[in-house]
Amino acid sequence: MLINTDNYKNHKIMSKFIYVIGAGHGGIINGIPQTAGKRSKDLGNGVIFEGVSNRRLVQKIIKELKKLKFEFVELVPEQIDISLSERVQRINKIPRAIYFSIHSDGFPDNRANGWSAFTSYGETKSDKIATILYKFAKKAGLKLRTDFSDGDSDKEAGFYVLKNTYCPAVLVENLFMTNLKDYKFLLSEKGQNVLVKIIIDTIKEIEKYGL
What's residue 202's pLDDT? Predict the structure, then answer.
């Protein structure tokens, strides 16, 4: 399925950037998770499949962007797990793009917990976006996972979607679905709204001050 680029051309109010929102991993088709390995255990309220949870957050983010009349693209409207190379090709066709890749973390040790954001290696505009995200995540009272070795709070990694996109790009790890406290937060409407607000407040600040 080709991405519909018309959905960022029809707003009456133009935004400085086109916000590309992508759910990591596959969703669910006919009750079957498309990326079955990315999952939690049942910690009391069912299994969290990451691709499904990511899509729930993406839809909430898009709902808020529509209210604000900011230009956006839903990167993966399909439920199937689109390849990383296809994701990057889609992103790189979009002008004025800023990319937010929406994920949740997991780890065999259920003590691992907290919120983090990743950028590619080196100093780029992506680091500025991540710094704003961390500011609002801290304001929300989340436990932050940080790396100040390069002078800022975000973590850096060679993730394909970060190092191969032309535009600023940040991968957000919205807590650990394998940790009981984070798991409950991810399943709650209140928790989801907190995570969405971090993204939306960041976008508002970018729109106000630029990069």
Answer: 98
